[in-house]
């Protein structure tokens, strides 16, 4: 895992009150990690604050697994690069 992915794992574990070992790429945020809708909102806010990004509503709706979070954060980072 990249440093950014490890940070995301820590944020997910802290926000959802789960062990970091449970936060694997194919873990489903709602089913496997037992997040409720309030925790999902808190997770997005925690990610935005820690990573200095803005996750748009369309992207939030795409989040199902931990890998989805990795991918969305990576996409946001790539779209913020000035060429």
Which CATH first-tier class would you pick?
Mainly Alpha
CATH architecture assignment: Orthogonal Bundle
Distance between the termini: 26 Å
**Class computed from helices, strands and strand pairing:** mainly alpha
* SSE string: HHHH
C-alpha geometry? globular
Mean pLDDT: 93
- CATH homology group: ACP-like
Low-pLDDT sequence parts: none
Query: What proportion of the residues is helical, as a percent range?
Result: 55-70%
In DSSP terms, counting alpha (H) and pi (I) runs of 4 or more, how many helices? Answer: 4
Q: What is the strand content?
A: under 5%
Query: How many separate domains?
Result: 1
**Radius of gyration computed on alpha carbons:** 12 Å
CATH topology: Non-ribosomal Peptide Synthetase Peptidyl Carrier Protein, Chain A
Main beta sheet: strand number and arrangement? none
Number of strands: 0
Main features:
83 residues; mainly alpha; Non-ribosomal Peptide Synthetase Peptidyl Carrier Protein, Chain A; 4 helices; globular
Q: Helices and strands in order, then pairings?
A:
Blueprint: H1 3-16, H2 37-51, H3 57-62, H4 66-79
Helix pairs in contact: 1-2
Structure commentary:
This protein is mostly helical. The protein starts with a helix and ends with a helix. The radius of gyration is 12 Å and the shape is globular. It contains four helices and no strands. The chain has a single domain, classed as Non-ribosomal Peptide Synthetase Peptidyl Carrier Protein, Chain A (Orthogonal Bundle).
């Amino acid at each position: 895992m990249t440093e950014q992915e490890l940070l995301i794992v820590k944020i997910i574990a802290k926000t959802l009150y789960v062990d970091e070992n449970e936060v694997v790429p194919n873990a489903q945020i709602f089913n496997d990690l037992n997040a409720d809708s309030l925790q999902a909102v808190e997770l997005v806010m925690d990610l935005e604050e820690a990573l200095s990004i803005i996750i748009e509503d369309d992207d939030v709706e795409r989040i199902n697994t931990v890998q989805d979070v990795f991918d969305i954060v990576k996409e946001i980072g790539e779209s913020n690069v000035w060429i």
